Amino acid sequence: MQRPTLLTALKKIGQNDKMALVSIPLKPKHEQMMKVVKRIVLVFYGFNYFNGFFIHFPYRIDVTNNSTMTPCVGMEPLTATPNKQICLILLAAQEMTIVVVVLNFQALLLFLIAHTAAMYQMLAYEMDALRESLNENLLENMELIRETLSTMIVRHSLTMDVVDLLKSLYSVPLGVNFCTNAVCICLFFYLPLREWLQFMPLLVYCFVVFFLYCFLGQRLVNSAELFERMVYSCGWENFEMKEKRLVLVMLRQTQKRVELLAADIIPVNIYTFATTMQAIFKFITVVKF
């Protein structure tokens, strides 16, 4: 059931992106924001793959280490050839599969949130450009205003549909991810100091993923609020009655709260990140020290 929903979300994102490119003056803004989205995804991939292959893997595929996922039961002795090599290949394939699947899943979610926030920013920039064009000649630009507003209503509806699809797709996974990250961070500080280096990649991974989710969730909220302010201050009081109705429709849509929720309870924003880190610090300080 989740795959058709995801395909629908990707289809709406592609349609929204094509419509955003119609405005020629805003193409540089679109290219700039898409570069930021790509950098976020590439940095996430690069950092975690480096973390996994060069720091995490050596510990996880070491057949003599107690932290391996599976000690290749039934293939003893693991110090002999070819048992050792076969076990290393099995462990490496298992770890690589886990890392690739998890990172692709999370990178897709980060991309969807970042791209949706960028679409809200594009709408805000276009509304601001429309307001500036009104200062030149309102009567001559009225037909352009009418077409632009109609297109923006469609694009805003697509963007809101994508947000609703993201909520239905990732509400439960986000809730599970937030809980597991918080637990992993807490448990890390209960380890002896000599084992910190071994599990440091896991701590860094949990921290980075948790921060990026909350950072991009906050960026989505801020972009939606920016668009709402741009709609209200677009100079609608100088429009004709038909254009005023279009602005009213758009303004009613923008007043709907845009926010991702983990497990339909926890807001995905930077405040959640800050309060969670504070709560973890207090818990560790009180219980351990």
TrEMBL record:
Q: Please list the GO terms describing molecular function.
A: odorant binding; olfactory receptor activity
Q: Where in the cell is it found?
A: Cell membrane
Supply the alphabetized keyword list: Cell membrane, Membrane, Olfaction, Receptor, Sensory transduction, Transducer, Transmembrane, Transmembrane helix
Listed InterPro entries:
7tm6_olfct_rcpt (IPR004117)
> Where does the chain cross the membrane?
40-59, 98-120, 169-190, 196-216
GO CC term, one of those recorded: plasma membrane
The main location class comes to membrane
Q: Name one Pfam family in it.
A: 7tm_6
Topology in the lipid bilayer is annotated as: Multi-pass membrane protein
Mind listing the GO biological process terms from this record?
signal transduction
Q: Which PANTHER family match?
A: ODORANT RECEPTOR, ODORANT RECEPTOR 19A-RELATED
Protein name, UniProt field:
Odorant receptor 54
Q: What is the source species?
A: Athetis dissimilis (Moth)
The UniProt gene name for this protein comes to OR54
